[in-house]
């Protein structure tokens, strides 16, 4: 019984939109979908990971680009508050460590209070900068300081006068210079002794003077020591006076802050340390040391002492909003932060106020999303990320120190506690590489969100897809789509999925089509997107990327590529193949030929011998060789060697979708029966001759249909495909119409023998008990010719 061709209703599944009410005339009447359609599995994985607080439950989202991975996660996070309201956000600040300035301290403040605290400290510094000079430049301070100075001076003068008077009574003059040097001179009445007058004295008088001077020197040295002690005592009293005044000033200015932040332990301790440090560095505010003061004020923004600034690293502007960061360029500095350098009068310096936050700082307490490939491409980023997740601390270390052996001086800021969920977006190959080569990956990324490429197509899913189209229309402020336009877009999605019973989940493709359709509709001054606009947008898309297809088809027009679609030929068959570029694929028929010569039954694959055939194609040739041997070589070797090739193929050939075409060509060469050239075939097979599904079936059929149009159409033209590919058919409208009119035929075959019967018009034959086929069948004719050669 001859095989019946496929009816036109099998070639294309129309979107009936039974899931939509009859009142729904356009996307205007649809509620936009608030989630990504068809990704329930991935959404459950994200929900699970976000609900677990323990370390290591980070997410790797697997899927090709365009599936809406990031959009789905963002919509989920915006719609659902993870863990209810149990998460607590903080502001993080760096301040000076007055004990060790190389190790700045971290302050953890309640969310939203970081900038307020910074402003409070700035106002405190402004008050102190004004208050200190006033406190030390008034009559009260001067009188108290002058009193201390007078007491010292009085004691010094009294002591020196007493010594001077005692010396004068013994005939010695005492003089003391301002540098502390002293001179004792023997007196001759009211005048000092000259050398001559002193020499004229008796030896006893000279000795008396010398003994007196020696005694006075001893007394004077004792007095000088006392003067030094008195000076130190005065200095201590003066410092104590300054400290008391400074304490009064600082205590008065800082008491409000201490009261305001008394419940925050970190800030309370910092204010106490700052209070003590200000008392030790009053000269900064009094501008007594110009160099130190100049460097202290070498700020890039405001004039206030740098050591008392507050560097607000992270400020939660919206304390109710869950922080979600998307890092587009995950470099080491952009993720982990860095320390800037400043230049002042030719001197390069840095301090805690120049620490800058990275995306991990900003995402702390929330989620950080990154592209996995970009993370792995940038040096040291992956190792740093793993280190931070393991330790649950964010250490801000200099990348320069990480990558060099030099001991350059840099800051070592205190680590910040890290509580963040990392979501990496990547493809399956990257996921496999990380699983295989990085043992820590499994421990740190325990949750896999696997995004689907397609979803089942039924009335409910079509209704969801229509709402998904409506959401794109609403989000992008497009013209609304009418019912037929919605149906056409759904049919386009099914074509993208290459399955009548599925819909593609590559939302980027649908969004791009809608944008271009909207452009076409607006260009034609339409008020709504119609089906014709969708068709025109798809034609425009194809026109932009189909240059290679036009070039290939032009070769059929000029006859450069040899192909017959009308006659019969022995050992020659039209096979179907797909040519693909990065953004487009199309079908083009090619001629396969088989010739035979006396030999030992080998099938000589010319493509493989010329190193143009891939491994899968070679496997297909081996499988068909096994099938031929099982049919014709059960009792004796096949006494023919077959040479098999793709004609006019100058590039690589791979895949096994030409297996059945090659068998048909070989059987034709064996039997001498001609094959119809107006029929093309595609499909792989197993060792039993059963047809197996192949890819690109729509493009293959369309490619042969177009070539038939070029060469001249006849009613008998058609294509054979595997029966298991019928559900993949979503053919062009012109092909469906041609089949409906009987101008083109598509057969769905389950075994290669059916293809041989259609090609030759003769029955293949059924094997008898002794392994023989009837002589009036194709296999019987082959068998008789082979037996003749064997004899």
UniProtKB/TrEMBL annotation:
The entry's keywords: Coiled coil, Hydrolase, Protease, Serine protease
Catalytic residue positions: 657, 700
GO molecular function, one term: peptidase activity
Residue span(s) of domain Lon proteolytic: 567-762
EC number: 3.4.21.53
Family, per entry: Belongs to the peptidase S16 family.
Protein name according to UniProt: endopeptidase La
One GO BP annotation of this record: proteolysis
Coiled coil regions in record: 206-247
InterPro entries registered for this protein in UniProt: AAA_32, Lon-like_helical, Lon_proteolytic, Lon_Prtase, LonB_AAA-LID, P-loop_NTPase, Ribosomal_Su5_D2-typ_SF, Ribsml_uS5_D2-typ_fold_subgr
Listed PROSITE patterns: LON_PROTEOLYTIC
Known catalytic reactions: Hydrolysis of proteins in presence of ATP
Any single Pfam family the record assigns to this protein: LonB_AAA-LID
Top-level lineage group: Bacteria
């Amino acid at each position: 019984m001859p095989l019946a061709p496929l009816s036109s209703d099998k070639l294309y599944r129309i979107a009936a939109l039974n899931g939509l009410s009859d009142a729904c005339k356009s996307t205007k009447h649809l509620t936009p979908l608030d989630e990504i359609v068809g990704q329930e599995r991935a959404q459950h994985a994200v929900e699970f990971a976000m609900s677990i607080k323990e370390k290591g439950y980070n997410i790797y989202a697997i899927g090709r680009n365009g599936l809406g991975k990031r959009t789905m996660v963002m919509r989920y996070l915006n719609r659902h508050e993870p863990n209810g309201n149990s998460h607590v956000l903080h502001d993080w600040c760096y301040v000076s460590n007055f004990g060790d300035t190389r190790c700045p301290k971290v302050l953890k403040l309640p969310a939203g209070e970081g900038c307020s605290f910074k402003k409070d400290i700035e106002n405190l510094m402004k008050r102190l900068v004004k208050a200190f000079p006033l406190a030390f430049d008034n009559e009260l301070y001067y009188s108290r300081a002058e009193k201390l100075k007078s007491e010292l001076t009085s004691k010094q003068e009294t002591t020196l006068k007493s010594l001077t008077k005692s010396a004068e009574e013994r005939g010695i003059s005492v003089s003391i210079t301002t540098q502390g040097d002293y001179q004792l001179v023997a007196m001759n009445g009211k005048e000092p002794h000259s050398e001559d007058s002193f020499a004229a004295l008796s030896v006893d008088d000279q000795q008396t003077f010398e003994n007196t001077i020696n005694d006075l020197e001893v007394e004077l040295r004792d007095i000088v020591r006392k003067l030094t002690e008195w000076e130190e005592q005065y200095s201590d009293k003066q410092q104590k006076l300054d400290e008391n005044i400074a304490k009064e000033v600082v205590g008065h200015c800082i008491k409000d802050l201490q009261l305001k932040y008394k419940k925050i332990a970190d800030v309370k301790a910092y204010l106490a340390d700052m209070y003590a440090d200000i008392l030790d560095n009053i000269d900064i505010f009094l501008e007594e040391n110009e160099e130190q003061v100049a460097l202290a004020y070498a700020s890039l923004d405001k004039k206030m002492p740098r050591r008392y600034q507050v560097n607000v690293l992270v400020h939660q502007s919206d304390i109710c909003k869950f922080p979600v960061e998307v890092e587009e360029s995950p470099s080491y500095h952009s993720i982990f932060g860095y320390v800037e350098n400043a230049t002042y009068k030719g001197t390069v310096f840095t301090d805690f106020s120049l620490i800058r936050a990275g995306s991990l700082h900003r995402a702390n307490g929330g989620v950080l999303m990154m592209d996995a490939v970009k993370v792995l491409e940038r040096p040291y980023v992956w190792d740093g990320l793993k280190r931070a997740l393991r330790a649950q601390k964010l250490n801000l270390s200099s990348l320069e120190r990480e990558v060099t052996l030099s001991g350059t001086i840099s800051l070592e800021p205190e680590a910040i506690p890290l509580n963040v969920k990392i979501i990496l977006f990547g493809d399956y190959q990257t996921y496999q590489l990380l699983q295989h080569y990085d043992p820590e990956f499994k421990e740190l990324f325990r949750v896999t969100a696997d995004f689907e490429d397609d979803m089942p197509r039924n009335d409910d899913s079509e209704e969801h897809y229509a709402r998904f189209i409506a959401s794109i229309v609403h989000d992008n402020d497009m013209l609304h789509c009418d019912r037929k336009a919605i149906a056409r877009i759904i049919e386009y999605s099914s074509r993208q999925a290459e399955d009548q019973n599925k819909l593609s989940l590559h939302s980027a493709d649908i969004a791009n089509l809608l944008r271009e359709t909207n452009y076409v509709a607006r260009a034609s001054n339409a008020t709504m997107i119609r089906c014709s606009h969708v068709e025109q947008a798809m034609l425009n898309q194809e026109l932009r990327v189909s240059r290679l297809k036009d070039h290939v088809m032009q070769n059929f027009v000029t006859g450069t590529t040899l192909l017959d679609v009308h006659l019969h030929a022995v050992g020659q068959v039209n096979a179907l193949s797909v040519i693909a570029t990065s953004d487009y694929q199309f079908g083009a028929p090619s001629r396969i030929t088989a010739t035979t010569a006396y030999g030992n039954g080998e099938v000589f694959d010319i493509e493989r011998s010329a190193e143009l055939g891939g491994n899968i194609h070679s496997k297909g040739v081996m499988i068909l060789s096994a099938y031929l041997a099982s049919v014709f070589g059960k009792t004796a070797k096949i006494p023919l060697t077959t040479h098999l090739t793709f004609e006019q193929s100058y590039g690589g050939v791979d895949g096994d979708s030409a297996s059945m075409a090659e068998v048909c060509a070989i059987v034709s060469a064996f039997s001498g029966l001609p094959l119809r050239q107006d029929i093309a075939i595609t499909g792989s097979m197993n060792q039993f001759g059963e047809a197996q599904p192949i890819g690109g079936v729509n493009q293959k059929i369309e490619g042969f249909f177009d070539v038939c149009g070029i060469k001249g159409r006849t009613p008998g033209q058609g294509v054979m495909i595997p029966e298991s590919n019928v559900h993949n058919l979503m053919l062009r409208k012109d092909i469906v119409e041609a089949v409906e009119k009987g101008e083109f035929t598509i057969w769905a075959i389950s075994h290669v023998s059916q293809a041989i019967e259609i090609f030759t018009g003769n029955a293949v034959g059924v094997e008898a008990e002794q392994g023989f086929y009837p002589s009036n069948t194709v296999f019987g004719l082959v068998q008789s010719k082979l037996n003749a050669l064997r004899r």
